[in-house]
Amino acid sequence: MTIGIIVFPGSNCDRDMRWALEGCLGLSTRFLWHEDTDLSGISAVVLPGGFSYGDYLRCGAIARFAPVLEQVHAFAERGGPVLGICNGFQVLTEMGLLPGALTRNQHLHFICEPCELIVQPGSCSWLQGYNNHERVTFPIAHGEGRYQADADTLKQLQDQGQIVLRYASNPNGSAHDIAGICSKAGNVLGLMPHPERACDPALGGSDGRRLLSSLLALA
Amino acid sequence: MAIYRANVQVSLRPSVLDPAGEATRAAATRLGVTGLVKLRIGRSVEVELEAPDAETARSQLELLSDRLLANPVIEDWQLTLATGEQQP
Description:
Chain A is an alpha/beta fold.
């Protein structure tokens, strides 16, 4: 089993993700360059954090048109597990795999700190290793993580149990304290916090390990 | 084929908070500007497009505006197409 890690010009968490998956969990990974179109042999796809295409225009706006993402879209539609972290979450909303948008933090600061989250896994395949309402700590590192959607979309997300991660103490003004949402089918998860930076106890915590460990079930 | 010139004005929807605009408004007050009750920051995009006729130019520019230059979830856009075609 191989996990595909998408690499855009400007991605900067791709190697962190490889370390978390290979070094911490012993999984095999393959970097998928943004111009690649071959996803054969890939069991799950991760869109890592960073500043794809320099965040030109809007975060994730240019990345959405990368050739590899056409394949990722089809992969997700077939039920393939897709995880977008930070910039990866922004890309997932721009490409329409998840609703809403990520906008400038309420107080403009780039916030880089550990953040307590409340998990409500529902049917999200990535979060089945967590208990309902469990509190975990993942680091956040973003300037544009304030989740926005219209009232109808927010209600729908709420009613369908798609708001799977909330901030215990909202750092950025995100609607409904949203830190992460998943697709209705449960296979696509987007979140601003960085689980890959919380996999090795040497980094101060390993709460993120169970999220990535969900991939072991695919093996 | 003619060249069509256009401007696309992208602005945050009124319901979306504009922290950069708010920060700029606060700075304007410190500068001594008085009476400033609204300041919202958008983006202006200048475009030149080659097309056989104005109708085609407009439909291409609308596609560009709605699907790339603006994110309709959080932004509105306004297209201004210069009247009359211009030779390259």
